[in-house]
Design brief:
Radius of gyration of chain C: 24 Å
Number of helices of chain A: 14
Number of domains of chain A: 2
Number of domains of chain C: 1
CATH topology of chain C: Formate dehydrogenase/DMSO reductase fold
Shape of chain C: globular
Oligomer: heterotrimer
Structural class of chain A: alpha+beta
CATH class of chain C: Mainly Alpha
Strand content of chain C: under 5%
Radius of gyration of chain A: 49 Å
Largest sheet of chain C: none
Helix content of chain A: 40-55%
Largest interface: A-C, 78 and 77 residues
Chains: A alpha+beta (about 425), B mainly alpha (about 425), C mainly alpha (about 475)
Strand order of the largest sheet of chain A: 2-3-1-4
CATH superfamily of chain C: Formate dehydrogenase/DMSO reductase domain
Strand content of chain A: 5-15%
């Protein structure tokens, strides 16, 4: 029967804590083979002990049953973790890609279930793995770097080749003599009493370890502190660039000056003899108001180009556009007394705008194409509006001007029957 | 791991006795009755789905039911070859039954002549590529050039015979050697089989893949998928192991093998069912997702038929019933170990395995849609709606299936004779003592 | 396996202490590698070479990150080349480790215990090497953190519908799982090291090993939960391995490029990964077995089994090649047919030839038992397999890209010295990590080996 009582007194100079024995913690019994350990465990369980355990370098097959170990709840924990992972991954993808900011990615539906399966799967596995791993250590109450049985040298050989059975003294049925006898009868090749440590200095964490833990925690918090400060403060300094190479690019932006070209501009004009796509504008009638001639000089077209459909909607559009662009000078009635001429006249100057609707006037005699050209390129004090008004809208304005002209010289008979009542 | 051994229980009934005969007779009876019903139903029915002949439905159902029974044997041959290849231990106790199921191949192939011979002799309404319209299309459709050579009834039949001879030969060889070992107890036979299992596995794999391309993928000759063979094999193994569970438990009901086959073996059969359910889902999803993602019309039309209209519900049912539900429940340890639950899931998976084959074939049944492009959605499996186009549901689909299951029982029953367990196989003691951890 | 268990007919329980001596032998045989005061000369030589290669890699990375992707040979047509080839190659190698750990565990192959620790370590280091490539090939790797969803004031989220995002999740889950699984297996062995150091009075080492072994004491109650967790992790790692390489294959298969877009890629890539992974395991283990006298732990039968697994997975890869060729013809699709004709007869025909000879022809030698018994030959064949599998990915990637839909985009590809340097650097990284692991961490799973030895059942009744 080996016995590792150690009754040294603490030495006088106290530099080295010395092991001292306190109360009995438990009894360790050593067995030669795994089979014998198994039998012993069975006997101990049958005898009604509960605060006992066996220790071996590998899990002994059949030990769970011999000791009466209940099946662990770990699989349920893993199931719960996996389910959480699945729901979480699905929700993450739905919320981020289909709800919060849906993008059109190659026409796929925003909520693309087949495309979301792989990550949902990985999320399930990830959370299951984390639950299994951390769940197991937590249920095993590890890390637990110290256990009273480590006071026994024999215990240090468990991880090599030794099979031990330990019964704790706090077990209800524990009795020094009968327990020892039970273990011996089961075939123990050695029995050892293990006592608790009493020296308080050996029971606390070494100071340097404590220092390491505290300082590393403190260091770990530094990045978060920096981030918190950055998010909650203001700065007038420009951002700093860790990798500046694409933030300051050696290229010219439009409308800047440069010294590369002789004219000092970054903008380059159109290249002579080229036409930009979509800007060929070959149709003379639509784009320039010129009639498709039968030869000889081009003439202004008198009708409307075939792309223009004459209908009420176009007239309305023409009115809308006329009111925006033309009325400041020509007025709402087309007589040339718009806000601009009136204002200039009030100040003593003159800014004549054409009367578009007078019978026999210039505007009335102009063919449609020429009207179109005037809108596009201007005449006299009028600027050209080609840059502001697209071609189709210019034709709409032409149509409206014609409507205005007609309306100012209408006869009674031109008024529709249902409107007659509204004329005074 | 555990080096436990056990010998055959002295009271164990290992002789087949007359259960083989009983199974054969029952199978024959079922086959005859249900074929008769099917024929009557077909004769009193009418042509549908753009086919000229009223037998088209019958032959499609025949093809599906036949592929079903073929796939059960495919799964069983695989486990026999694998067992020898890796010197497995746990299967030995039930391996004779696997061999019996695998040796149903000759009968299955004879039954397959039921649709192959008509095809060979000019029946045009089963495979579109055999129809004269398809040949007219070659002139216009570059995708169908293979009709010139690969998909002609003659060459197709030659390949069919090749598969028949190959699978039957492999199954027969493994069964024969195994029975030989019952007599002589010669451990060298195990070694011979181990050496044979390598080349056998290679031939088996290639033949199974090409079988799937030929018999099932050509139903939709304009479509293709390199995964098809592997997907078929995965599904086949689900069916195979489910059928194995039922047959083993059925044999035990007659008082045989009651000590040799234990909850441990059920657990392992259940594990294979479970793994292959997952494997099928993996291959089926990969095939679907990749063709969905690539969005190439020459591939997606096959899935389009199965994603919209009434077929959508069948597809969803497959995901839930063929994968999700068995996967969730069979995960647990005890559902695989107790007979009622294993039987329930075996039957469940067999039904869904048939449904998988049905889903593979039937959306292409209505040629108005598949080949004349009438609408984008295929007429449903239940109501057959979408104007004149008709898939609908026909009792013939089920009766022919049951008839062919009867044929399968004939095929298996023929091989259930002599010892039901390889008595002198050196790994038998390990298999009998087998414990799942 | 029946031939394996013929060994169990010895009756170890007969002689007291005999079983325990066997366990002690295992501990000693494995621990002496880490406890030797001076490292083995071969180890030092290998480490020197590894560190040199690693330095080449560091320089290549520095040059790449500061200058840009232009230093590589990638072009507008062949925009993925060595970078993604290497990524897939390394990930594939990692998969064998998980297979050995998890799948061989689930199929109760006890011979795995001699190699699983080293194989798991190999996985972790391979994943580390692999991850460098997707990170660096982005060109601005300092933005990589945007792939992790986090709240930001642009309301910007990752695009989860992309296979490249699936890769991020799959490979990180895989890396993390491998580390956790490896560490969990290590804890009992680290406890062994702790106790040996404590017994010898080496306090510093005992403290370090003590902390990382979490105070493990071999309690049966703890073993119960430990075993359960091990089984669960093995059960989870198996579908994970399948899913990771499947997701990697989705990078290609979800595209529309002929040669890339094909449904068989997931299982084909997984089989290929296992194939190349086992070749790498053997490439590492055979020399180590020779140098450190581990012949009785890593047995001939184990090596033979690994050769057979390579044969099987190599044939699966070959079947996939044949399937692709057949379906390319069957489909009638002009672009598909051209893609495969071009692979064999186009400008990259030499890489296709290498691929076929190394992946299909070379493994056929493993049919022969005489070959499976000669470690030197196996070592050489495994190198060929690794080369062949590298070329398989290169063929898929570069050949298909160099001859895509528009002839105006057709080009050829040449690697630059920086491509090569980075690849050599990852070999250096891998080797360095592995050599360090070998020296300081228990290289064989002692507790697991002891658990499957016949002596583990010594003294049990009913044997």
């Amino acid at each position: 029967m080996a016995n590792t009582h150690d009754n040294h007194e603490p030495s006088d100079n106290d530099s080295e804590p010395v092991s001292a024995d306190g109360d009995l913690y438990g009894v360790l019994a050593e067995y030669d083979t795994p089979g014998e350990l198994l039998e012993a465990a069975r006997k101990v369980r049958d005898a009604g002990y509960t605060e006992f355990d066996t220790y071996s370098p590998f899990p002994v097959h059949g030990m769970d049953e011999a000791m009466g170990i209940k099946r662990t709840i770990l699989p349920l924990v893993v199931w719960g973790g996996g389910f959480t992972g699945l729901i979480g991954a699905v929700f993450l993808q739905w919320w981020m890609n289909a709800y919060n900011w849906p993008w059109n990615i190659s026409g796929k539906p925003a909520w693309s279930m087949p495309a979301n399966v792989p990550i949902a799967f990985e999320g399930t596995i990830l959370f299951s793995v984390l639950s299994a791993f951390f769940g197991m250590w937590i249920l095993n109450k590890l890390p637990q770097v110290w256990h009273p049985f480590f006071r026994s040298d024999r215990f240090g050989k468990v991880t090599d080749d030794t099979f031990l059975l330990g019964i704790e003294a706090k077990d209800k049925r524990f009795d020094q003599t009968s327990t020892t006898k039970l273990l011996q009868d089961a075939g123990a090749i050695a029995i050892e009493n293990v006592f608790l440590e009493t020296d308080p200095r050996r029971k606390t964490m070494p100071k340097f370890l404590f220092a390491i833990i505290v300082s590393s925690t403190a260091f770990a918090l530094i990045p978060f502190a920096i981030a918190a400060k950055a998010r909650n403060s203001h700065s007038n300094q420009p951002h700093f660039h860790i990798f500046p190479d694409m933030d300051f690019q050696p290229k010219y932006k439009s409308d800047t000056a440069d010294d590369l070209f002789a004219d000092g501009r970054a903008n380059r004009g159109e290249i002579a003899g080229t036409v930009a796509r979509g800007q060929l504008n070959a149709d003379d009638e639509f784009y320039r108001g010129l009639a498709h001639g039968t030869g000889g000089e081009p003439q202004w077209t008198t009708g409307f180009p075939k792309q223009i459909e004459i209908n009420d909607a176009l007239v309305q559009r023409g009115q809308n556009r006329f009111n925006i662009y033309c009325t400041p000078c020509h007025g709402y009635d087309g007589r040339g007394l718009g806000a601009v001429p009136q204002r200039v006249a009030a100040g003593g100057g003159a800014w004549p705008a054409r009367n578009l609707v007078e019978g026999g006037g210039v505007a009335s005699k102009m063919p449609n194409g020429q009207l179109f050209n005037t809108i596009s390129n201007g005449m006299g004090t009028m600027q050209g509006y080609a840059a502001q008004i697209p071609h189709a809208d210019r034709w709409a304005i032409v149509l409206y001007v014609r409507a205005l002209q007609r309306s100012q010289h209408a006869a009674d008979t031109d008024v529709p029957a249902d409107q007659k009542g509204s004329i005074r | 791991m555990s080096a436990l051994v056990k010998t055959l229980h002295p009271d164990e009934k290992i002789k087949a006795g007359n259960i083989g005969k009983t199974m054969t007779r029952a199978g024959l009876g079922i086959a005859l009755v249900f074929f008769a019903i099917s024929i009557i139903l077909t004769l009193t029915g009418s042509a549908s789905g753009g086919h000229d002949s009223k037998w088209a439905r019958f032959f499609h159902a025949y093809l599906i039911g036949w592929s079903f029974i073929f796939s059960l044997s495919i799964g069983m041959i695989w486990i026999v070859i694998l067992h020898h290849l890796v010197r497995g231990r746990w299967v030995t106790a039930i391996r004779r039954i696997c061999e019996a199921m695998a040796c149903a191949f000759p009968i299955i192939f004879l039954a397959g002549l039921g649709f192959m011979l008509p095809l060979l002799f000019g029946y045009e309404d089963l495979y579109y590529w055999a129809h004269h319209d398809a040949h007219n299309e070659i002139l216009n459709h570059h995708l169908l050039h293979k009709l010139n050579f690969w998909l002609t009834p003659g060459f197709f039949f030659v390949r069919y015979c090749f598969y028949g001879v190959l699978f039957s030969a492999i199954a027969w060889y493994f069964m024969k050697k195994s029975r030989q070992q019952d007599e002589s107890g010669d451990p060298k036979i195990s070694e011979t089989l181990r050496i044979a299992s390598g080349p056998a596995m290679v031939l088996y794999s290639v033949a199974t893949c090409f079988f799937a391309y030929d018999i099932l993928m050509t139903i939709a000759p304009k479509w293709y998928s390199t995964m098809y063979g592997v997907n078929f094999w995965g599904s086949a193994c689900v069916g195979g192991f489910s059928a194995l569970a039922l047959i083993v438990i059925g044999i035990q009901r007659t008082g045989r093998l009651t000590h040799s086959v234990t909850a441990e073996h059920y657990h392992d059969i259940g594990k294979w069912m479970y793994s292959f359910t997952f494997f099928w889902a993996y291959t089926a999803f990969s095939q679907f997702m990749l063709q969905w993602y690539g969005n190439m019309p020459e591939e997606t039309h096959w899935y389009r038929y199965r994603m919209f209209g009434e077929w959508k519900w069948v597809s969803i049912l497959m995901v839930v019933g063929y994968w999700a539900f068995p996967f969730a429940i069979l995960m647990s340890r005890w559902t695989k170990r107790i007979v009622p639950s294993l039987v329930f899931f075996a039957v469940w998976q067999l039904v869904f395995h048939w449904l998988d084959l049905y889903w593979n074939v039937m959306p292409s049944y209505d040629w108005n849609i598949a080949y004349h492009g009438a609408t984008k959605i295929v007429a449903g499996p239940l109501t057959g709606s979408v104007s004149q186009h008709h898939v609908g549901f026909s009792p013939v689909d089920i009766t022919v299936w049951i008839a062919l299951c009867g044929v399968f029982l004939v095929g298996v029953g023929r091989n259930l004779k002599g010892n039901l367990i390889p008595t002198k196989d050196p790994t038998l003691p390990l298999s009998l003592a087998h414990e799942v951890q | 396996m029946s031939a394996e268990n013929a060994e169990h007919h010895a009756e170890p329980g007969d002689q007291p202490g005999k079983a325990r001596e066997a366990f002690r032998d295992v501990t000693r045989d494995v621990a002496w590698v880490a406890e030797a005061p001076k490292p083995h000369k071969a180890w030092l030589a290998a480490l020197t070479i590894a560190v040199i290669l690693l330095s080449i890699g560091v320089i290549s990375i520095y040059h790449l990150v500061t200058t840009g992707i232009g230093v590589w040979g990638n072009s507008n047509s062949v925009d993925w080349a060595w970078d993604i080839t290497n990524f897939v190659w390394w990930i594939g190698i990692g998969h064998a480790g998980t297979l050995i750990s998890a799948v061989l565990f689930l199929t109760r192959q006890s011979w795995r215990t001699s190699i699983n620790r080293a194989a798991e370590a190999m996985t972790i280091f391979a994943v580390m090497c692999a991850l460098l490539f997707p990170l660096l090939h982005t060109g601005r790797p300092w933005f990589a953190w945007w792939m992790i969803p986090h709240p930001n004031d642009m309301g910007m989220w990752p695009q989860f519908r992309s296979p490249l995002m699936w890769d991020v999740f799959a490979v990180s889950t895989y890396g993390l799982t491998s580390v956790l699984f490896w560490y969990m297996g290590l804890v009992p062995d680290l406890a062994t090291f702790r106790d040996r150091c404590a017994a010898k009075g080496d306090k510093v080492r005992a403290l370090i090993y003590g902390l990382v072994s979490l105070g493990w004491r071999g309690s049966a109650r703890q073993w119960h939960r430990y075993e359960r967790a091990y089984l669960i992790l093995a059960g989870l790692a198996t579908p994970l391995v399948f899913s990771v390489h499947s997701v990697v294959s989705f990078d290609f298969a979800t595209s529309q490029l002929p040669g890339w877009h094909t449904t068989i890629f997931p299982p084909y890539f997984v089989a290929g990964a296992i194939f190349s992974g086992f070749a790498m395991v053997l490439t590492l283990m055979l020399p180590l077995r020779y140098l450190f006298n581990l012949h009785h732990i890593i047995k001939e039968s184990h090596i033979g089994a690994m050769c057979k697994i390579m044969l099987a997975t190599g044939m699966m890869v070959g079947l996939a090649y044949a399937t692709e060729l057949f379906i390319a013809w069957y489909s009638g699709n002009l672009y598909e047919k051209f893609a495969f004709w071009n692979r064999a007869l186009g400008p990259f025909w030499w890489s296709y030839f290498l691929m076929i000879s190394c992946n299909v022809l070379v493994p056929q030698l493993f049919w022969f038992k005489k070959i499976r018994e000669k470690p030197v030959i196996i070592f050489i064949l495994c190198i060929f397999v690794n080369i062949g599998m590298w070329f398989e990915r290169f063929v898929i990637i570069a050949t298909s890209l160099a001859r895509s839909f528009m002839p105006s985009m057709w080009s050829y590809y040449h690697p630059t010295r920086w491509d090569i340097g980075l690849f050599l650097g990852t070999i250096g990284l891998f080797s360095t990590m592995f050599l360090l692991f070998f020296r300081y961490v228990p290289v064989i799973a002692m507790a697991e080996v002891k658990g499957v030895m016949p002596e583990a059942h010594a003294g049990k009744k009913g044997h």
